[in-house]
Design brief:
221 residues, mainly alpha, 8 helices, elongated
């Protein structure tokens, strides 16, 4: 096996896990929309699927998303050269993944019953806010980590555009927060999935892959 082929093989496992996790996560969300037609997707939050029929699918979706994002943080840590933006970006992504996992444990309250509030619902709302802030900051920091990397600098512009898409989706959610919050949240989540897929697909993993790229050998994932 040539050195370039060996590097490509080494670089496939972690991105493959991220991509598989995101595909399964999206598939579960689609399945929940089909299984729970009683929930208006324009007004009901995704986390509400964790209560009632087929609740286990939403819990599994949280676990898949958290695991995939945490794995992507590992991929960035192994792909990028050492820098403060890399460290901060990886920590923010790991934090976003951790809050997804915790939201699988602490279920949110039903928006259709605003007067019924539970302590787990309060915890869930707090985790959701931390999750959103972690993503906004990560989307701002990661392009800077890429720009600081001489081998992967060419992807910094695309990463920055994905960051702008996340910021726009966040602003859009706030704009429709009181009219159709469910729709705004779904657009935001779809943008996060796109960000993860784009970065998992584009970035190499490990020092041997970086060596190949630094010598001008095309890396195709």
């Amino acid at each position: 096996m040539s050195r370039s082929l060996e590097a490509r093989s080494d670089g496939r496992l972690i991105p493959g896990l991220v991509l598989a996790g995101m595909v399964l996560f999206a598939s579960l969300l689609v399945a929940l929309h089909l299984l729970r037609p009683d929930y208006d997707p324009a007004r009901r939050f995704l986390s509400e699927y964790a209560t009632g029929r087929a609740s286990g699918l939403m819990t599994s979706a949280f676990v898949l998303a958290g695991s995939a994002v945490a794995t992507l943080a590992l991929q960035l840590a192994r792909s990028l050269s050492a820098s403060r933006p890399r460290t901060l970006g990886c920590l923010l992504l790991a934090g976003a993944g951790a809050t997804d996992l915790l939201m699988a444990v602490f279920r949110g309250d039903l928006s259709a019953l605003p007067r019924i509030r539970t302590w787990t619902g309060h915890v869930h709302d707090g985790l959701s806010a931390v999750h959103a802030l972690s993503w906004l900051l990560a989307a701002w920091v990661v392009p800077r980590a890429l720009h600081a990397d001489t081998v992967l600098r060419s992807f910094a512009g695309a990463s920055a555009r994905w960051g702008l898409a996340i910021a726009a989706a966040s602003a859009g959610y706030l704009a429709v927060r009181w009219s159709c919050p469910g729709l705004g949240q779904r657009v935001w989540v779809a943008t996060l999935v796109g960000w993860c897929v784009a970065h998992a697909w584009a970035l190499p993993v490990g020092p041997r892959v970086r060596q190949v790229m630094a010598k001008g050998v095309e890396f195709t994932g």
